[in-house]
Amino acid sequence: MRRIAMSVAVSTMVLPLAGCGVLNAAGDDASASPTMGDQVTVGLLLPEKANTRYDKFDYPIIKSKVAELTHKKGKVEYANADADAGQQAEQMQRMIDEKVNVILLDAVDAHAIAPTVKKAKDAGIPVIAYDRLAEGPIQAYISFDNELVGEVQGRSLLERLGSGAGLSDKIVMMNGSPTDPNAKQFKEGALSELNGKVTIAESFDTKEWKPENAEANMTEAIGRIGKDNIAAVYAANDGMAGGVIKALKNAGVTNLPPITGQDAELDAVQRILAGQQYMSVYKSYPDEAEAAAQMAVAKVQGKDIQFDALTQDRIDSPTDKQIPAKLVQVTALTKSKIKDTVVEDGIYTVDQICTAPYKSACAAVGLR
User: What phi, psi does 282 have (nearest 5°)?
Assistant: First the structure.
């Protein structure tokens, strides 16, 4: 599904153009769409609350950026579906009925939402797929390079297992929700690194990404494989990594195997410091969210030069080909990378990370 037309480094270089006059340059572009002023209403539909990033980072960053780009005259109408695809369809229909100008959609179920995406198009409302690639006639897509996320996770596990890793090493794969197309790409990326090098002893597609479902799946895997026969666990995100760790501890495992994650949640960063979770994947939510806000505003204001500059990648969905896209880079987050990623980018402060139980672990990696 991934077709990268230009490097991420090139596409991210265009972000400052909004501050150099391009955002107001539609009149210089012969192909520019009809424009509207700063009274922009962006509909933002986010998928769930189990992952804390959506309410903590994505929504406030997008809201702030839309206000900045519209001289505080634009607004964001926000709804979170709490992992309920039917509820998200209702939320989106409500935004269509309220005639928002553009919709940023992070789909609970990428396939099920397609008819509502079509309704938005018929109503003249462009839909930009955010973070997850929704089906239907979307205008653009912005996310992280999801196959690369899986590759980074799989590669990190192999590096942690060392040069002696082989087919005798049994791996459990705790993949994401089967309704999320990102989960499929994460899994494909991870398997491209793991296949033929270790044995995938058990693999689960975890309903709704819920940690409690991952915990139940892991308990099942432990029963079949044996608690002492698991060399590593591929967990697609941090919430599920937490569920995996609970299941292992409940089974009496004291020397935890290396476990991956994704999203750099605060609990996961602290688990990494404590040696309970090996790594996470850090994705710069500010970069993704700010670029999404720029895309949405540029689209409805007819700033085609700005919009095209922001979407120089291309990607295919099951229903559409060559969708304009922006794919943002990711970083493997291990103990040694905490300071240079989540702290440097202002996601968490040292005080937030280094609470009393983690003071010594923080000192060991230079977090003071």
Answer: -90, 125
Q: Which residue from 245, 173, 229, 170 is spatially nearest to 206, judged by alpha carbons?
A: 173
Integer angstrom CA distances of residue 24 from 67, 71, 301: 16, 12, 9
Q: Which residues pair with 171 in a beta bridge?
A: 200, 232
Tokens 């026969």 correspond to: 229
Would you put residue 153 in left (φ > 0), alpha (ψ -120 to 50) or beta?
alpha
Q: What is the pLDDT of residues 11-54, one digit of tens each?
A: 333 333 333 333 333 333 333 345 689 999 999 999 998 888 89
- For 148-188, the pLDDT digits (tens) are 999 999 999 999 999 999 999 999 999 999 999 999 999 99
Helix segments in the chain, DSSP class H: 8-12, 53, 59-69, 85-97, 114-122, 146-161, 181-194, 211-225, 238-250, 266-274, 285-300, 304-310, 350-353, 359-364
What does the alpha-carbon distance between residue 325 and residue 312 come to, in Å, rounded to a whole number?
6
* Contact between residue 173 and residue 190 where contact means Cβ atoms under 8 Å apart: yes
Cβ neighbours, 10 Å, residue 357? 10
d(CA 128, CA 139): 5
Determine the straight-line distance between the first and last CA of the chain, rounded to whole angstroms: 43
C-alpha–C-alpha distance, residues 368 and 360, integer Å: 10
Buried b / exposed e over 47-72, threshold 16 CB at 10 Å, is: bbebbebbeebbbebbbebbbbbbee
Dihedral (C-alpha) 211, 334, 291, 99: value to the nearest 10 degrees? 10
DSSP string, 8-38: HHHHHTTGGGGGGTGGG-GGG-TTPPPP--S
